[in-house]
Structures are given as C-alpha cells and as structure tokens.
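hey so i finally got around to running the thing on that chain from the lab meeting. sorry it took forever, my laptop kept dying and i had to restart like 3 times. anyway pasting the input first so we r on the same page abt which one it is
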Amino acid sequence: MEDTKFGPVVTVSATYGTGGSLIAPRLAQELGLPFIDRLLLPEGTNETNIETRSQEGLSEGEQEATPGGRFFSYFARAASVGAMMAPDPLVDDDETIRSRSEAPLRGVQSGAAAVVLGRAAAVVLASRPRAFHVRLDGDPERRLAWASGLEGLDREAVRARLNETDKARTMFVKRLYRADPNNPALYHMHLDPTVMGLDRTVHVVVTAARAYFEANP
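ok and heres what got predicted. didnt touch it at all, straight out
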C-alpha cells in the first residue's frame, strides 16, 4: 500500500495529571480528525463535550493491571518469583487484552486518520506511515497539583491515584508490548503541560503535527 493512502495520525501518551484526556480531543478538533479515546464511551456520548471530563484514570485494559486487579496481582506474583507462573483461569491472556485494546486501532493501522489517546498507540503504530507520536509528562508534584484540580480530590487521594495509574500504564505497555512507555525514542515530541498550560500545549502540538504531515505527505 502506498504511503499516500495513509491519513494523518497523532498518538498521545500521557502520564497521570498531564491533562491528556483534555488535550487529545482538542487536538482532534483542531486538526479535524476523529478521536479515539482510552475509554470506550457509551453510545450517544457527546465527544465534543471535552471541557467537563478529565478521565485521567485508567482504561479497561489498564484497570486489569492496577494494584488489586487480577492482571496486576498475577504478574506481580510472577515477577516476585522471577518466572511466569501457571496461568490463572480468571485472568485474560495477553492476546485477549491486547486485541481488546487494539480493536479501535485496526482502521487506523490500515490508513484511517485519527488522534489516539493511550492504548500504547506509539508502539502499536510505530511503523505506520504519517503517525506523529507525542508524550506528555512532567514533574510528579506539578502533576499532582494539576490532577487535584482536574479531579476535584484532595492531594493525598490524588497522590495515591497518580502512583497507581503511572505504575499500571507502564506495566500495561511493558507486559503486552515489551516496551517502556518512558522511552523517548518512541516519540517525536515531549511536552510538559503542567508548565505550558493546556492551550499552549495544544497549539504547539498542532503546529508541529501540521509541519510533520506537510513534510510527510
């Protein structure tokens, strides 16, 4: 398939508290592209209502990797003994979880345009032509303060959620794709929205993405 048949794609990988769930849909609006969220939203959900939802939490697949989740508990126990344990019948296998997470990306892999938040998209779409990969991250204390405002929770509750979410998202990518989401080589651009702010972050990414797509028609 010729590269010219591939539409533009922006993938957004975001640590907890960097506003990825607000920034990514705004990028889609600015670039005129469909938006694929971390979460499978119920039918009829208004995708344009992005100012009132933060959704800094975990996706369905990531939830299975959180402390207390079956996926996390199983692999944490396996790691503690240094080898894989016998399969747990209550834990979905890697391929099932991976397939469920990648299902919304199949059209994108074939050439459809989109802005994708999460889903290890920078890894899944690493070899796809015309895919621009962005990482949002920042100092944990600044992210904590930002998330506290976004989520409307006290700092200690947010701190626990930050630690849990960052750990689960990292484990999700490492376990299913043998990749580290903190690896800078996966991305074209790294930004810290806790310093730049939402509006400026969106502006910078849109400008850079348009330049990238013009250079890669």
